[in-house]
Amino acid sequence: MKKILVTGATGNVGAALIQLLKNSGADFEAAVTDISKTEKIPKGVPLRQLAFDGKSDPAPFTGIDKLFLMRPPCISDVKKYMFPAIDAAVSAKVSHFVLLSLQGAERNSFVPHRKLEKYLIKTGIPYTFIRPSFFMQNLSTTHLKEIRDNDEIYVPAGKGRTAFIDVSDIAYIAFKALTEIGHENKAYEITGNDSLTYSEVASMLSESLGRKITYKMPSAFSFVLRKIKEGINPEFAVVMAAIYTVCALGKAGEITQVFKQITGKNPVSMKEFINENINLWKRG
To answer: Is the Cβ–Cβ distance between 128 and 97 less than 8 Å?
Structure first.
């Protein structure tokens, strides 16, 4: 059995992936930056310490065959902080990289996801690029406070449509890529079945919550300034704006059937997601 290492193990996708691997009986370990902070990881899951700190140390990858690679949101300079780790993984004989990338990454050279894709291709090691649309969970994590406390969605996505995807569906595709053959050297653009504007999402939230949620539609510049004032790293704020610009330009609304083709299932709908998480946006 091939051994799998999951980075981003405490994140939304990573946590869902770990649960799938655990339930299947797969041979895997979770990579964490701090061994003492693992409360989000199920008990009994083997751990490895790994930090994308710019060092090329093959030790964290020793004995690993397949690597689920996720860029930490705080890292925008992937050349400095992540390329050395990829080199180390190659040196340790990792035989398959499964990268959590981004919808449209192949058309957006500015985003760090594309830089990672290009570097992985250059290694000559088999890869799978998972290019999901925007996470539904962004609404229940990154934008939770602004929706719950300010009754607004504040993103520079213009009037563009987005085919939102649930992280559980992303994790399922990653699970398939890591545990089955036939996914090598492929890129999967996965979306949900609903292509929605943020105004429409705000209306759906308003209906379910019984109070008005407004989509503010800021400019990219205003968005970056606000995020910096909120304490977000300026480089990260710019990357966030660049990603939302993909939506504003109308490049995030296309619905693909890749998820159903691979899994035989329909992806989670936005209505299902909102109903399941409605209490998160309620006050008091």
So the answer is: yes
Q: What is the pLDDT of residue 1?
A: 64
Mean pLDDT of the chain: 94
Question: Is there a contact between 97 and 103 (Cβ–Cβ < 8 Å)?
Answer: no
Level-2 CATH architecture, domain 4-132+167-190: 3-Layer(aba) Sandwich (3.40)
Given a contact cutoff of 8 angstroms between Cβ atoms, the answer to whether 215 and 248 are in contact is no
| Per-residue pLDDT band at 206 (split at 50, 70, 90) | very high
Kindly report the pTM of this predicted structure.
Answer: 0.92
Helices (H), the chain: 12-24, 78-81, 83-91, 112-123, 144-150, 167-179, 198-209, 220-229, 234-248, 258-263, 270-277
Radius of gyration of the chain from its Cα atoms, rounded to whole angstroms: 19
Give the whole-angstrom CA distance, residue 224 versus residue 222: 5
Q: List the chain domain ranges.
A: 4-132+167-190
Structure tokens at 55: 């060092």
Q: Taking the CB of residue 191, how many other CB atoms lie within 10 A of it?
A: 25
